[in-house]
Amino acid sequence: MKYELGRLEAELIFTLERNERTVFTVDDARDLLDASDEVLRKLLHRLTLKGRIQRIKRGHYILIPAKAGYLPKWREQIHALVDGLLEDYYLGYWTALNHWHMTEQIPRTAFIAITTRRRDFVYDGVVPVHFITIKPHKYFGWTTGETGRHRFRVSDPEKTVIDSLDLPQYAGGVVEVAKALSHELDWDKIIEYADRQGNRTVHKRLGYLIELLETDVSEDVLKKLRSGISPGYGWLDPTAPHEVLKHNSSWNLKINIPSEVLRSI
Fold first, then answer.
1. Closest CA to 153 of 236, 96, 106, 72
2. pTM score of the predicted model
3. Of 41, 123, 137, 172, which sits 20 to 30 A from 161 (CA to CA)?
4. Same structural domain for residues 48 and 89?
5. What Å distances lie between residue 239 and 162, 176, 181, 256, CA to CA?
6. How far is the CA of 114 from the CAs of 82, 157, 160, 164, in angstroms?
7. Segment 40-51, tens digit of pLDDT
8. Are residues 258 and 151 in the same domain?
């Protein structure tokens, strides 16, 4: 397969780029080219084989940047993809931690919170896109971000922390989340979000980390977190080996990460 673009292929790609259309439909392509269904079907198939577009659902495609676009360009395209494809969503967990510069790690996977189940896929054979289906009562706490010329939804810093403590497996584990506590946060909002999230283990993990890392918060914050914990012991980090190093009775946690590891972040 030759990778040069034919006349109609080039016309479609260049027109989409000129109009800043990242996500497009078959009907969009038909209107731009005024081509028959048969010609259009073959053209879209060839562009898919050449790696210039990718089918994301029936009748919907995303424009793939040239390989010279590098990873930042791919991220920009993914942001446009999800905003053009989804309604109730936000970028969250490890992706949001990176967006807010709360971690120096760059997750290879894009983590997206949604309220209706969707199938994961790999964008351009490079970036896995993982959808995390959340219950409707957890769909809150997002804001609008921008990258390049695209706008997208992303969990705000406080919701990023709460989501990541709720499901640490999508945030690189509790060690990555702990790094976020050194950043400026609205602690009243943190408490509100923790209560709304509905997972009392979030209160336990957050309270334990605040005390261990000596995070500068008021005693009232710790009091409110402690009032929200439930009976029974949960794991500090469900992604770490389930080997109990000690039981923390203050926060009803089974500690499975050495305290020196957390203090060294």
1. 96
2. 0.80
3. 123
4. no
5. 16, 12, 19, 10
6. 10, 18, 14, 15
7. 999 999 998 888
8. yes
